[in-house]
Amino acid sequence: MASKKLQDMLNEAIARELQVSIQYMWQHVTVVGINAESVGGVFKKIGIVEMKHAEQIAERLDYLGGKLTTKPTPIDIGETLTQMLQIDKKAEEEGIALYKEIITLASKEGDIVTRKLFEEILSAEEDHHNEFSTLLEK
Asked: Where are the alpha helices (DSSP H) in the chain?
């Protein structure tokens, strides 16, 4: 069905989604300071969305006959609110780049369902990137 390369990229996407879902949730728990209440809620909300993405991608990869990874990419929580937001902004940028590659490859392979799934996820990731970018503005 799907090429080995596409299956590997889906596993990379799962690992990234697991990473950020844990990362954002731990940031929600550990953030301190005057903005902790409001930004902590943002971390929690986005972390839940990222876990749903991991589930959607895992279901797709399983359907395509791939073996699912259980290992997240390295988690980096950061020490300060600004560090957390910078780390998260970069993570979203990396995810956006990967998902554009997946969309291109899925299109090339004629895998319309995977392409559409990642177009939807890409839209959410761009929203998350915008939210983190906006919070970082002075």
From this structure: 4-30, 36-63, 81-108, 112-136
Domain count, the chain: 1
**pTM value?**
0.95
The domain in which residue 116 lies consists of: 4-136
Is pLDDT of 75 > 90?
Answer: yes
> Looking at residue 58, what is its pLDDT?
98
Q: Indicate which CATH number applies to the domain containing 48.
A: 1.20.1260.10
C-alpha neighbours within 13 Å on the C-beta side of residue 120? 11
Locus of tokens 């799962």: 14
Q: What is the DSSP string of 39-61?
A: HHHHHHHHHHHHHHHHHHHHHHH
Tokens of 78: 């950061």
Q: What is the pLDDT of residues 18-34, one digit of tens each?
A: 999 999 999 999 999 99
Task: Give the pLDDT score at 70.
Answer: 95
The four Cα atoms 49, 55, 82, 127 give a dihedral, to 10 degrees, of -50
